[in-house]
Amino acid sequence: MSRVSPLSQATLKTSPAPLSVSRARHSLAPWARIAGLAACALLTLGPVIWTVSTSLRTPAESFDLPPKIIPTHPTVDSYRGVFDQIDVWLLALNSTLVTALIAVGQMITAGLAGYAFARLDFRFKKSLFALVLATMMVPLQVTIVPVFLVLKSMSLTDTLLGLIIPAFPTAFGTFLMRQYFLGMPKDLGEAAMLDGAGPWRTFRSVYAPLATPGLAIVGVLAFNYHWNEFFRPLILETSGQNYTLPLGLVSLQGNLGTGSISVVLAGVVLSMIPAVAVFLVGQRPLREGITSAGVNR
Fold this sequence. Notes:
Elements: H1 6-14, H2 16-55, H3 77-85, H4 88-119, H5 125-134, H6 140-153, H7 160-164, H8 171-182, H9 186-194, H10 199-210, H11 212-227, H12 231-236, H13 245-250, H14 261-293
Helix pairs in contact: 2-14, 3-14, 4-8, 4-11, 9-10, 11-14
């Protein structure tokens, strides 16, 4: 009969310990990730929840100490006050017109420019693309004065067209669509050219339909950004009939900020609804497009 050495016995006794520790770590890992994601979600949604909660309070309850997340006496009077103080429908119409046309314009310009930089060969292509990317480093505040002077010479200041046309070019959209087109097989375009299709026909019939998720990204991001845009309308618009919704919400603050905070935040909640709706509708192509844009073949 063979004997087991003391060293072998110690090894047999201690071998299950690392396995149990590994199992414990694997069982705790999902809960740790869930806890981390929940904390991040709470930090992100906290201001939104507070905004909605305050919009349902009376002006006196807005300054209660200690503050309460759930209103004691919920009321929608603040939302009525928004419609009483500003022309919400006109402001929303202006914002919808401006943002929708900008989104469509950026989808067109970004699609064409991205395809040109990805699939066409022309002189100084790399230098021009680098110049396009360099414009992303220039703050809007630096270019607003030259843009204002150009629009003034064209009599487009204090018009909705003055907000729409300068926003058509998009450096980020061009970069995104270039990466998207680079991820598509070259064989598709080569096969179309062998059949006699030119660059425009190849783009329109072959690549553009496949680039729909990428174009959806550009459109959704453009809509959400320009729906909440405040700086350019503040500089370019002077007539109340051409105000966008963010400019109109500022008037709810009253003289020297003496307006009701509940009414102001009720207007903010109303302005969030279209942007959230567009994001919810476009989140699937947005997710798929961002994933596909990172694939470079």
